Amino acid sequence: MEKSFSFLSKEYDRLFLKNLEMFCKNISKKESYQNRKFSLFYPSFGTNDKKIDFVIYGQATKGWTPEFEIDKKINYKKLVDEARIFSNTIGEIERNPLDWVNINWSEKTKKEYNKHKNLIIDYNANRSFFWNVTYKLISDYYDELDRNSPDWSDKLVWSNLMKIAPAERLNPDEVIYSDQLHGCVKLFIQELEEIKPKYAILLTNLNWAKEFIKTITGIPIPSNDIIEWAGYFKKTLIIITKRPFQGNSDKFVEAILKFISLQLTFGPINEV
Length: 272
Description:
Layout: E1 3-4, H1 10-27, E2 37-40, E3 44-45, E4 54-58, E5 67-69, H2 76-87, E6 89-90, H3 99-103, H4 107-112, H5 129-141, E7 156-160, E8 164-166, H6 174-178, H7 181-195, E9 199-202, H8 206-209, E10 227-233, E11 236-241, H9 249-266
Parallel strand pairs: 4-7, 4-9, 9-11
Antiparallel strand pairs: 1-6, 2-5, 2-8, 3-7, 10-11
Helix pairs in contact: 1-7, 5-9
């Protein structure tokens, strides 16, 4: 039996729909993109709790559901509904909508769930720098968790700065990025307004995220080779890190938690 998890507001869905429509309008004018398939991503809640400490942001999904084609007639409202439901519904054996990461962590974990082939995807999450930082960060932050527990996945919301990406598991190029940027910035702010997390961790690099934090005042950061920017949106501490293809995930977790600890000790600086 499927179970639905938290969704965002009708206002958020209105902005999400508008962003999708504007992207399709913009990209359809460019001949080389008219026959491309795209994936639509809606934020995924690992929990139904109203108090959420973390929203973890990536750049964009490299393959997600639903998919759509620009040159075909699109039912925009239906597509948004499909995106919201896909990201926030669990099957019979999943504990939460982010449990797919645990299930698809390695070939070994896939074998443990091989009777439920609909949960198995062509992806080993343990190869992902993003998911390695994420599960270690959440596990280390909460005293009651350890890194061997799958329970980290019910302690966060997962989102991406870009909501639309090529379906063929590629990052958005400059055109795909710019044609949705205005709407995605609004969605980022709306997510922070509605979820009100303590921390928004952007594992994206500053160049990818700079347009999203233009109106947010930065705070001093320690000299290091991991954290590129930090600032407060109301009471949410935003931290932007570098985004290597490969890196030492333990060092990233250590740097993020150390910076969070400093803020807890000395309090918000330049809060807006």
